[in-house]
């Protein structure tokens, strides 16, 4: 069964750091681009970053320089290191697999992990 | 960044209705347009990719069309399980951006 499972969310103070993880199963993880997408409470979706199977990365401007996406293909895991967190980073964070036949869409999503930035 | 504008932002419809949601891009994005459905408390689910390709397992009452700057998602006969929020997304250029969402209510 193809599945993504995020973990690592929680409450953090402004300026703090947090590392999210996404465990993949049921597919050859290294073959796929992966993304992080977030959704602030009651708001729409915002793409955050993607990483290719070989480690090529792209970031949204709102997180560039503060967030780092990475992956460990041997562990079938995706990560998002978040530093210098701000209140505006409060959101549910989803990891998603790029589409198996068209890598510019997301065909598998995790259930999400909540990150709250507050003093 | 490419701005994506959906209309309407919300609509009320009945079971069996034909529903159309439009998405306009701030510049031409060819056919790099996807549609997602999201229900409360759940992750989004892809319905349509590359403007008009139906995702495997998605009912055929969903269809997408358009290219350039104007796109539509059509639900030919609304079913109870279709009440949700729908998002368009452009993947023509990064940062990939989403529309603000269109909530379909009873």
How would you sum up this structure, described in words?
The complex is a heterodimer of chains A (119) and B (106). Chain A is built from no helices and eleven strands. Chain A has strands at residues 3-7, 10-12, 18-25, 34-39, 45-51, 57-59, 67-72, 77-82, 91-98, 106-109, 113-117. The termini of chain A are far apart. Chain B is an all-beta fold. Helices cover 0% and strands 48% of the residues of chain B. Chain B is built from no helices and eleven strands. In chain B, the strands form two sheets. In chain B, strands 2, 4, 5, 6, 9, 10 and 11 form a seven-stranded mixed sheet that branches. A four-stranded antiparallel sheet of chain B has the order 1-3-8-7, with no helix packed on it. Chain B is globular. The mean pLDDT of chain B is 97. Chain A binds chain B through residues 44-47, 58, 60-61, 94, 99, 102, 104-107, 109-112, and chain B through 1, 32, 34, 36, 38, 43-46, 49-50, 53, 55, 87, 89, 91, 94-101.
Summarize the helices and strands and which ones pair or pack.
The complex is a heterodimer of chains A (119) and B (106).
Chain A: E1 3-7, E2 10-12, E3 18-25, E4 34-39, E5 45-51, E6 57-59, E7 67-72, E8 77-82, E9 91-98, E10 106-109, E11 113-117
Parallel strand pairs in A: 2-11
Antiparallel strand pairs in A: 1-3, 3-8, 4-5, 4-9, 5-6, 7-8, 9-10, 9-11
Chain B: E1 4-7, E2 10-12, E3 19-25, E4 33-38, E5 45-49, E6 53-54, E7 62-67, E8 70-75, E9 85-90, E10 97-98, E11 102-105
Parallel strand pairs in B: 2-11
Antiparallel strand pairs in B: 1-3, 3-8, 4-5, 4-9, 5-6, 7-8, 9-10, 9-11
Provide a quick synopsis of the model.
The complex is a heterodimer of chains A (119) and B (106). Chain A has 119 residues and is mostly beta strands. Chain A contains no helices and eleven strands.
């Amino acid at each position: 069964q193809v599945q993504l499972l995020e973990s690592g969310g929680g409450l953090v103070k402004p300026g703090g750091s947090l590392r999210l993880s996404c465990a993949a199963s049921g597919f050859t993880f290294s073959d796929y681009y992966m993304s992080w997408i977030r959704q602030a409470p009651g708001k729409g979706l915002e793409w955050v970053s993607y990483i290719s199977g070989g480690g090529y990365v792209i970031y949204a401007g709102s997180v560039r320089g503060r967030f780092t996406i990475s992956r460990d293909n041997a562990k079938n895991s995706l990560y998002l290191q978040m530093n210098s967190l701000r209140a505006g980073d409060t959101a549910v964070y989803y990891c998603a697999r790029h589409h198996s036949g068209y890598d510019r869409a997301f065909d598998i999503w995790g259930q999400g992990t909540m990150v709250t930035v507050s003093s | 960044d490419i701005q994506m504008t959906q209309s309407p932002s919300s609509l009320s419809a009945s079971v069996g209705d034909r529903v159309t949601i439009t998405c306009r891009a701030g510049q031409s994005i060819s056919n790099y347009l996807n549609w997602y459905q999201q229900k409360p408390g759940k992750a989004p689910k892809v319905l349509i990719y590359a403007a008009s390709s139906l995702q495997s397992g998605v009912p055929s009452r969903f269809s997408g069309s358009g290219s350039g700057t104007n796109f539509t998602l059509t639900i030919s006969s609304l079913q109870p399980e279709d009440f949700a929020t729908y998002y368009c997304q452009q993947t023509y250029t990064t940062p990939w951006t989403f529309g603000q969402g269109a909530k379909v209510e009873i």
